[in-house]
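[Discussion] Sanity-checking designs against the backbone

I'm trying to build intuition for which residues belong where. Below is a C-alpha cell string of 301 positions. I'd appreciate it if someone posts a full sequence so I can compare it with mine line by line.
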C-alpha cells in the first residue's frame, strides 16, 4: 500500500512539474496552440469532442485488426540512401519493396491512439483548413486529421492499391477526405496545382528515408501558406530519419521547430517574419517523454 501511494504521489508531482514547464514555455514564446496538445500528452485527458473522434477511429482500427492473419501487399519503407542524394523537386525517390502484412499488423502500423489524438489536436488547434498526408496506410490517421471541425479537405496519398481501398472504407463517412492511390511525387504534381488555394497543413509520412523526406518537403513548400503546419512523422524511427529532422528543423522557412520525439512539428514563417532568422527550436521530449532512436527491422544486409 505504501509503495502504491508513494508511486501515485511521485507521478502527481512529476505531472505538476511538467505542466508548470509547459506554462513557462508558452510564456517564453512556444505557440499557444501547443498548450492543449502538451497537456494531453502529459495527463492523457481530453475533452468530449476529442473522445468522440478517438472512439470512431479506434473502432475502425479494431475492425481492421479483427481480420487477423489475412494478408495484403504493402510497400515497405526503403533503406537509407536508396533514393540517392537529390532532394530537388524534380527528383523521384524510389518506393520500397513489396511485402505482405497481415491485417492485424496493418491496423497497428499507423499512428496509435495517443499520436492519432495529437494529429487531431494539431489540426484543430492550428485551425488547419486544407492539407495533404503522404502515407495513408489504413486511413486511421486521416480519420483523426479530417475530424477537426475546421478541416475542409485532406488529400491523403497511398502507393499501395490494397491499402488505399482499405482506407476508402475507413473514410467513407469523412466526406472531406480524398484518397489518392499514387506515388507521392505523382500525387503532389497532379493534386496540389489543381487546388483553388494553397494548403496550410502537411503530414509527411510513409517514406521513412532522409533524402526522400527532405525532397517531399521541398516539393510541397511552394504550395504552403504562410503560417502553415508541417508535421514530420517518425523522426526518431532511425538515425537516418533523425538526420532528416536535424536538417529540416534548421531550415530558414520555419519560424518554430518542435521536437515531440515521435513527431516533428514545424510552423512556416509569415511574410512579416525575418527570412534569414533560424527557427526557434523547442525540445519538448523532456515534457512528453524521451523517444530513443530506432533500428528498423530489415534495414541491415
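Best answer:
Here's mine. Compare freely.
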Amino acid at each position: 500500500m505504501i509503495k502504491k501511494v508513494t508511486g501515485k504521489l511521485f507521478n502527481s508531482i512529476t505531472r505538476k512539474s511538467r505542466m508548470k514547464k509547459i506554462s513557462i514555455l508558452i510564456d517564453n514564446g512556444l505557440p499557444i496552440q501547443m498548450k492543449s496538445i502538451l497537456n494531453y500528452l502529459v495527463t492523457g485527458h481530453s475533452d468530449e469532442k476529442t473522445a468522440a473522434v478517438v472512439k470512431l477511429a479506434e473502432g475502425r482500427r479494431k475492425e481492421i485488426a479483427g481480420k487477423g492473419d489475412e494478408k495484403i501487399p504493402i510497400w515497405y519503407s526503403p533503406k537509407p540512401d536508396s533514393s540517392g542524394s537529390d532532394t530537388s523537386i524534380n527528383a523521384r525517390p524510389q518506393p520500397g519493396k513489396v511485402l505482405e502484412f497481415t491485417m492485424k499488423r496493418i491496423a497497428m502500423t499507423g499512428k496509435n491512439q495517443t499520436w492519432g489524438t495529437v494529429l487531431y489536436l494539431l489540426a484543430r488547434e492550428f485551425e488547419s483548413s486544407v492539407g495533404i498526408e503522404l502515407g495513408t496506410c489504413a486511413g486511421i490517421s486521416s480519420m483523426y486529421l479530417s475530424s477537426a471541425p475546421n478541416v475542409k479537405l485532406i488529400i491523403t496519398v497511398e502507393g499501395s492499391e490494397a491499402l488505399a481501398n482499405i482506407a476508402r472504407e475507413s473514410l467513407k463517412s469523412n466526406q472531406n477526405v480524398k484518397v489518392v492511390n499514387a506515388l507521392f511525387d505523382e500525387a503532389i504534381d497532379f493534386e496540389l496545382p489543381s487546388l483553388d488555394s494553397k494548403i496550410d497543413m502537411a503530414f509527411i509520412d510513409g517514406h521513412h528515408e532522409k533524402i526522400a523526406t527532405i525532397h517531399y518537403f521541398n516539393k510541397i513548400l511552394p504550395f504552403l501558406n504562410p503560417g502553415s503546419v508541417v508535421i514530420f512523422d517518425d523522426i526518431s524511427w532511425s538515425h537516418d530519419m533523425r538526420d532528416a529532422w536535424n536538417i529540416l528543423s534548421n531550415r530558414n522557412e520555419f519560424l518554430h521547430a518542435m521536437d515531440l520525439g515521435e513527431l516533428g512539428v514545424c510552423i512556416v514563417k509569415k511574410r512579416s517574419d525575418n527570412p534569414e532568422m533560424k527557427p526557434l527550436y523547442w525540445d519538448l521530449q523532456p515534457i512528453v517523454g524521451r523517444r530513443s532512436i530506432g533500428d528498423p527491422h530489415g534495414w541491415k544486409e
